[in-house]
Amino acid sequence: MKLVILLSFLALCRAQHLNFDGATGKLYSPNYPGNYDNNGDVVYTITIPVGNYIHLTFLDFLTEDSYDVLTIENSTTVSGDKTGFALDIQASQVTLVFTSDLTNTFRGFLIRYDSVPVGSVYMPTNLCSSILHNSEFDIITSPNFPYNYPDNISCAFLIKVSADRLISFQFVAFNTEDGYDVVSVYDGANTSAPLIGHYSGKNMPAPITSTSNTLYLCFSSDLVTNFSGFSGLYTSFVSNNFKRGVLPQSLTTDSVAIRRDKNILDWLKKKAEEKKLIGAAAAPVISI
Ligand SMILES: *[C@@H]1O[C@H](CO)[C@@H](O)[C@H](O)[C@H]1NC(C)=O
Ligand SMILES: *[C@@H]1O[C@H](CO)[C@@H](O)[C@H](O)[C@H]1NC(C)=O
Ligand SMILES: *[C@@H]1O[C@H](CO)[C@@H](O)[C@H](O)[C@H]1NC(C)=O
Ligand SMILES: *[C@@H]1O[C@H](CO)[C@@H](O)[C@H](O)[C@H]1NC(C)=O
User: Fold this and answer.
1) Host domain of residue 244
2) Which residues touch 140 (CB under 8 Å, ≥6 apart)?
3) What are the UniProt keywords, alphabetically (predicted)?
4) Does residue 194 line the site of ligand 4, with CB under 6 A?
């Protein structure tokens, strides 16, 4: 018992404090989308203009159930798989404390907060349109998530990361009308690329990995029946092929110029020119 008290005292001493004061913002667990550390302690304080209250949307939430806990204003505690949880906090300031115990770590969370004028009801502003996502990782959701998506919509999402990367995509919440409200995923920049799968219903689809730096998702709903839809996390990583010096087919040696390491770039260019294959469509292949 003494040990537990001492440990939690130590944890409080080195807690990290993060302050948020924009009208809207995103809270990430430490290392997100990588796993948070054991024995962690982070305090998030959100302060929005007076006359508004705070709405929280859990776009992704996965922690060790009962042990790695997010405490909201000393009262509500959240742990486990809670993607899609949403709540109103009737105050213009709130403190959230995330503590993890000494064993087992998970991905943690990405929580969005919004300011809502006192006396009005939170309305999601998640419009359905073609959206380009080009950060190294992000969350993609159906419109209004975790509230029901509209009937009769069609949305497209293009994920395009830097040229040396591939994309891993996993749904973290999934609930659509089976057979009628469908997410289609293509391994490329548009619907001409190879189809990876059509997904609908209540079962979580398997994780997906792209073969290039683009991934294209379409979501369409029919005229009746709507559910909470989906939330999906994509991350990206440097392609092993690229590391080995095999340039993706869509790249010319010049387009590789965006790479930061100039020495590697010069070396790649030189090798590519030496070994350039005959024929316009052929990609330069470099052996080490
Ligand atoms: C939460 O707990 C802290 C420390 O125990 C205390 O200072 C603070 O006033 C509490 N907040 C609320 C809303 O109870
Ligand atoms: C969802 O379906 C219900 C019942 O069919 C309908 O009244 C409602 O407008 C739909 N919601 C949206 C966001 O389209
Ligand atoms: C469904 O959406 C299409 C395209 O926006 C529109 O033309 C059509 O009228 C809509 N149908 C219904 C029944 O709302
Ligand atoms: C689809 O993407 C490919 C690769 O970027 C491009 O060459 C092609 O023109 C695109 N097709 C359409 C219909 O936009």
Assistant:
1) 240-274
2) 131, 133, 157, 159, 217, 231, 232, 234
3) Disulfide bond, Repeat, Signal
4) no
Q: Is the shortest distance between the CB of 74 and ligand 1 below 6 Å?
A: yes
Q: Is 82 helix (H, G, I), strand (E, B) or coil?
A: coil
Q: Is residue 284 part of a domain?
A: no
* Residue to probe by mutation, ligand 1, list 74, 76, 94, 96, most atoms within 8 Å of CB: 74
The token pair at 261 is 């390491």
Domain limit, last residue, from 91, 117, 143: 117
Q: How many domains does the chain have?
A: 3
Q: Are residues 110 and 162 in the same domain?
A: no
Ligand nearest to the CA of 226: 2
**Nearest alpha carbon to residue 9 among 73, 103, 99:** 99
Q: Which atom of ligand 2 is nearest to the CA of 152?
A: 14
> CATH number of the domain that 58 lies in?
2.60.120.290
| Ligand nearest to the Cα of 75, by number | 1
The closest alpha carbon to 82, from 67, 61, 100, belongs to: 61
How close is the Cα of 43 to the center of ligand 1, in Å? 12
Residues 264 and 233 in one domain: no
